[in-house]
Design goal:
FAD/NAD(P)-binding domain, five-stranded parallel sheet, alpha/beta, 25 strands, 3 domains, 12 helices
């Protein structure tokens, strides 16, 4: 009888692991249970469906259940929710919501890819049906239904100014809504240092968003968001406060947890229970610079972890090399990017950090369409090693973070980045690329101090 792999969760981490395992083991019986109505999709695209740049939620689906069954022989079961794991019998208790029945599914290997859930403030009304998360396509369908009912001129309050908060704010601006963003932090984008976050707050206001930083939310009720500064009228409320790992199932089964209650895994994505693996937003990663365990809920990370788990499940050997939490986003014309450690993060991790910021342009200053951008780099005093970077600017700014990410990944120094053979033509860059200019500034500060 063939060995069975049961995958809990049908998005990036789970389906990548399942497909990788299938490529290496044709004899494996693979069953995937997913409590929602979609699998193998890009949740990052949800704001662009809400804003109208992408037509439908189905456009975000990479592979349908039928395609997964036909191409990879993965038995995908939608609206099936894993309720409990029994390691004594090696079974998962599964609830089939469509048929209103519960059954037990045996396994030899188990892949946990349960994802994450929107973080809800611990205040009255936060669990209300009118307070929307946007973590899954089912969440998005719920939000879109309410948005259609509210109409184009509705009042939208976004609680939290992270990546999702910014993207959803832009989406509803595109729909003609009045948008307010409330964040308890001094500036939006807590993944940035405050001086760079302030640029994003200012840009949001310039684009027509009412940004209220340093403001705590105290409660929700239909039609209103209550804050320490008064009540905001709200036809729609969306959470942009980040996510928490969906690790309850693992914890109840006795699987060890790590940082921020993530599922703890080793370099091969193995949990502390034999034959049980995890990947994606539910599990921990480790930071390549700080060397500390972290929770980074990004699709890029989920796919990479799922690939490692799948290779190992299929009998190969792979290890996860860590993360830098590299990410980009955009609000209208303003692009935002970050990688590695920020200035505050570097010092909190014990580094003697030096940070420098420069202003430049996306093209040669004389070339039509040149736009301003600001680059901040962080390096370690003594070694000169780059620890991280942040960029805020207009079109052509954000993807420059990939050069910084490559440099940080490979432990390059600021001096080495200065001498990188970067491309140049006036439509694309000044003669000295802004990343190289920032590296030169950091190198000078290191030499001076």
């Amino acid at each position: 009888m063939a060995e069975r792999l049961v995958v809990i969760g049908g998005d990036a981490g789970g389906m990548t692991a399942a497909s990788q395992a299938r490529r290496r083991r044709g004899d494996l019986d693979i069953v995937a249970v997913e409590r929602g109505r979609w699998v193998s999709y890009s949740a990052c695209g949800i704001p662009y469906v809400v804003g109208g740049q992408v037509d439908t939620l189905d456009d975000l689906v990479a592979r349908t259940p039928g395609e997964l069954r036909e191409r990879f022989r993965i038995d995908v079961r939608l609206r099936h929710e894993a309720m409990a794991i029994d390691f004594d019998t090696r079974e998962v208790e599964v609830r089939d919501h469509e048929r209103a029945r519960t059954f037990r599914l045996g396994f030899d290997h188990l892949m946990l890819a349960t994802g994450a859930r929107p973080r809800r403030p611990p205040v009255p009304g936060a669990d209300g049906d009118h307070v929307h998360g946007v973590q899954t396509l089912d969440d998005a369908a719920h939000l879109l239904a309410h948005a259609e009912a509210a109409g184009s001129g509705c009042r939208v309050v976004v609680v939290g100014g992270g990546y999702v908060g910014l993207e959803i704010a832009e989406a509803f601006l595109n729909r003609g809504a009045t948008v307010t963003v409330v964040d308890r932090a001094p500036e939006v984008m807590q993944g940035l240092d405050p001086d760079m976050g302030a640029l994003v707050s200012a840009a949001m206001r310039d684009h027509g968003v009412d940004v209220r930083c340093g403001v705590e939310v105290t409660g929700f009720e239909p039609g209103a968001v209550h804050t320490v500064d008064g009540t905001l009228p709200a036809d729609l409320v969306i959470l942009g406060t980040g996510v928490d790992p969906e690790s309850t199932l693992a914890a109840e089964a006795g699987i060890g947890l790590g940082v921020r209650d993530t599922v703890a895994v080793d370099r091969r994505q193995r949990t502390d229970v034999d034959g049980v693996w995890a990947a994606g937003d539910c599990c921990q990663s480790w930071h390549r610079v700080s060397q500390q365990p972290v929770h980074v809920a990004l699709g890029t990370v989920a796919n990479r972890q799922g690939r490692v788990a799948g290779i190992n499940l299929g009998g190969g050997y792979a290890t996860f090399p860590g993360v830098l939490a590299t990410a980009v986003t955009r609000l209208c014309a303003t692009e935002v990017a970050r990688t590695g450690l920020g200035e505050g993060e570097a010092r909190a991790a014990g580094f003697d950090a030096v940070a420098e910021t420069i202003e430049s342009t996306t093209r040669a200053g004389y070339y039509p369409g040149a736009r301003r951008l600001r680059v901040k780099l962080v390096a370690e005093r003594g070694t000169g090693r780059l620890l991280g970077g942040q960029i805020v600017g207009e079109e052509g700014a954000a993807k420059r973070i990939d050069v910084v990410a490559a440099a940080v990944w490979n432990a390059m120094t600021a001096a080495e980045v200065i001498d990188l053979d970067l491309s140049y033509a006036p439509p694309f860059s000044p003669l000295w690329d802004p990343v190289a200019v920032a590296a030169r500034r950091v190198a000078a500060a290191l030499d001076a101090g």
